[in-house]
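User: Teach me something about this protein's shape.
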Amino acid sequence: MWKKVIVNDRMQRGFQRFRLERVADVAVQTCREPGRCHAVTFRPHRQAVMPCLARSACAAIVACTIGCASPPNAPPAVTYADDYTLFGARNFLTGYDTKNADGTFNMAVEIPTGTSQKWETCTTASLADTRRFPGCTAAGREMVVEAEDGERRVIHHLGYPGNYGSMPRTRAGDGDPLDIIAIGAAAERGTVIPVKVIGVIRCLDGAVRDDKIVAVASNSPLHARVSSAADLEMVAPKAADILLAWYQNYKGAGAMTCTALDDEIAAMGVIVEAQTAYDPLSQTAR
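Assistant: First, the predicted structure itself:
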C-alpha cells in the first residue's frame, strides 16, 4: 500500500523516532527546483534514508532520492511518473520477444497477484481513448491505470489469482496484446518475466473473443512440477476451476463466457495466431 509522505523541517524529528523499516512503500515528492516538486516512486532503505533526515527538508528529500529511478530493493527498470503511470526499461510491446530460447514465454506484469487496480499497457488504441487511458503517450511506452466514469478502475471482486499481464509482440481477438495470467507470488508491476505456458481459457467478453493464456511463474512452488494443464490438475486439484470461476465472474455474473482450461497445445496455437496478427511496424493487425 502506497503512503504519501512529504518531509518538512517540523516532521524530521518525528521521523527520526519512527521505525522506517516498518514502512512498506513510500511515494515521496522530490524537489527538482525551489517551489516545484515531481512525484516518484521510492522504497525506503533505512541506511540510505536515516542520514538524510538530519538535513533541511528539501536537501533531505533530494539526498534520499538520488537515483530514485532505481531505488534500493526495487527493479531498476521500473519508474513511476505518478501514482497512475509507469515506464519500463524497454517498450512493453516491441522491446521483448514473445518466446525465449529456453522455451519460456515473456509477459509484462500489469496486475500483480492478489491486487485489484486495473493497470493496462498503452497501445495504439489507448492513444485514441484518452478518457479511458489517461497518461498514454506512445504505444508500449507506459502502463497506466484505466479510468472508468472519471474514476481510476478497480476490480470489485477477489484480487487477481495470479500475475496478470500481456505478451509482447502479440495481438489478440480484442485488438489488445494477448492476455496472460501466471500462477505464483506477486511479481513487480512493470517488469517483464519469463513464464511456463500450460494452457488457455477461452473467453467471450460479450461478443468479443478474449482468450486468457495460463502460465506458471518461476517463483511458484508449482513451477518444478507443472508443465501442462494435466499436471496442474494432478498437482493442484481444482486450481483450474478456481481460475475459470474467477474469469467468469470478475466483471459481474454473465459478463464473461469462458470454457474450461484447455491444454498447452491449444495455448501454443492461440499464441502463434496472436503473433501472426501482430505487425511490429504499426502495432496493429495486418
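Now, about its shape. Residues 2-64 form one domain. The radius of gyration is 21 Å. If you'd like, I can walk through any region in more detail.
User: That's plenty for now, thanks!
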